[in-house]
């Protein structure tokens, strides 16, 4: 929001509050709560002039609170429930809509023009705890402003989850140099660009890349890139060197490597470590430890689920390394609240893998397989499932 447009919004709110003759009073003119499919509910709120909003949550009772300070409510005072919403009612004294829930939820929201849309899906205890602590966003509708803020799991105006792709290496760091002279940094960027194309064509997510050209990005910068954008999923692409190894493999984070090869690969990748910890509100050390543990466990489950989808998808398209899903302490996978996987697309130390990865058709096969895996993961993620299957 520009300084000027922000001033207009504040002016509109002030005029609405004082109710000057001939000027519109800030009012909610429409509110609907309806099914959005797959067990979700959608709340749509419209206002006639610049109206500030803020979405928060409570755990006991399980409730969302949409605050609309200074607004008059001209919509129905009570809304019938749908999906994870039991019912909603307007609290005129507090200038807020109380949304009673049947259990924990996750939310996404978009604000455009005069309308605010909030999608409410069944969630987990962890997703709801983050929503309680971080909120679900704030902004202005009915004026020049849109939506801002919000904890992990919220989305921007497109209403779609964000997938961050991380092409390994770049710039002064070429990565592995293949037996025929192929630079890993070029293969990972080309593969990420193809995967971005496939994912965006699905229409089910947004995509951002930690680098879109030949530049160096430190490992902690890659992790922070995903965290600042509240990514739903982080995928790092590589094509390393390992004598005798051939085929694609998928890695998730673990303090202890699942095998010697995984340990060596992690060591070679970790030129730096991710320093940032989980951003928590001021709480006691005991509560902080509990929350951190819950979030990390949920992230670990989400990462393992994505690894399973990736292995299944890749296995139908390309040669796989035996024991395809492996674990190691890769620094680039250490965002505590973002499910993350590292995909070794093959090994440039193997002439067959190197030749394949240099072919656009083979990279397209990889991208199609991984795009399908992401879509399968998103379907489970938004259904609020917590088992790894």
Q: Helix tally?
A: 8
Largest sheet properties: 7 strands, antiparallel
The topology string of helices and strands comes to HEEEEEEEEEEHEEEHEHEEHHEEHH
Q: What ranges have pLDDT less than 50 throughout 5 or more consecutive residues?
A: 1-24, 144-158, 270-281, 383-389
Number of strands: 18
Strand order of the largest sheet: 6-7-8-4-3-11-12
Strand content: 25-35%
The CA-CA distance between the termini, in Å, is 44 Å
- Fraction of residues in helix: 25-40%
Report on this structure.
This protein is α/β, with parallel strands linked by helices. Helices cover 32% and strands 28% of the residues. The protein has helices at residues 3-18, 125-134, 184-202, 219-228, 260-269, 285-315, 351-357, 360-382; strands at 27-37, 40-47, 51-58, 63-67, 72-73, 78-82, 85-91, 96-101, 105-112, 115-122, 138-141, 147-148, 162-167, 206-209, 233-238, 248-253, 320-328, 340-344. Helix 3 links the parallel strand 13 (162-167) and strand 14. Helix 3 (184-202) crosses helix 8. The longest helix has 31 residues, at 285-315. The radius of gyration is 23 Å and the shape is elongated.
Q: What keywords describe this structure?
A:
about 400 residues; disordered C terminus; alpha/beta; seven-stranded antiparallel beta sheet; six-stranded mixed beta sheet
């Amino acid at each position: 929001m520009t300084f000027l447009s922000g001033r207009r919004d504040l002016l509109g709110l002030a005029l609405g509050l004082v109710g000057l003759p001939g000027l519109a009073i800030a009012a909610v003119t429409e509110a609907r709560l309806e099914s959005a499919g797959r067990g979700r509910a959608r709340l749509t709120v419209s206002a006639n002039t610049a109206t500030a909003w803020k979405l928060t949550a409570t755990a006991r009772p399980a409730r969302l609170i949409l605050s609309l300070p200074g607004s008059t409510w001209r919509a129905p005072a009570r809304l019938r429930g749908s999906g994870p919403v039991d019912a909603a009612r307007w609290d005129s004294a507090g200038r807020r809509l109380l949304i009673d829930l049947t259990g924990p939820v996750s939310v996404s929201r978009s604000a455009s023009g005069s309308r605010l849309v909030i999608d409410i899906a069944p969630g987990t205890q962890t997703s709801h705890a983050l929503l309680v602590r971080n909120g679900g966003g704030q902004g202005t509708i009915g004026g020049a402003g849109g939506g801002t803020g919000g904890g992990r799991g919220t989305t921007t105006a497109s209403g779609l989850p964000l997938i961050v792709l991380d092409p390994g290496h770049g710039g002064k760091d070429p990565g592995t140099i293949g037996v025929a002279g192929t630079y890993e940094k070029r293969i990972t960027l080309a593969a990420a660009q193809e995967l971005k194309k496939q994912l965006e064509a699905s229409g089910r997510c947004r995509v951002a890349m930690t680098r879109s050209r030949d530049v160096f990005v430190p490992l902690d910068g890659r992790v922070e890139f995903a965290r600042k954008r509240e990514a739903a999923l982080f995928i790092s692409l590589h094509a390393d060197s390992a004598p005798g190894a051939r085929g694609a493999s998928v890695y998730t984070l673990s303090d202890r490597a699942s095998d010697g090869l995984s340990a060596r690969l992690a060591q070679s990748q970790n030129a730096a470590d991710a320093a940032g910890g989980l951003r928590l509100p001021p709480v006691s050390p005991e509560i902080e430890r509990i929350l951190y543990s819950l979030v990390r466990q949920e992230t670990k489950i989400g990462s393992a689920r994505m690894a399973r989808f990736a292995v299944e998808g890749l296995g139908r398209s390309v040669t796989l390394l035996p024991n395809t899903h492996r674990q190691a302490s890769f620094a680039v996978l250490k965002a505590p609240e973002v499910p993350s996987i590292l995909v070794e697309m093959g090994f440039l130390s193997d002439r067959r893998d190197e030749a394949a990865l240099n072919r656009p058709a083979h990279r397209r096969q990889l991208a199609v397989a991984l795009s399908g895996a992401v879509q399968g993961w998103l379907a489970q993620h938004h259904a609020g499932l917590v088992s790894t299957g």
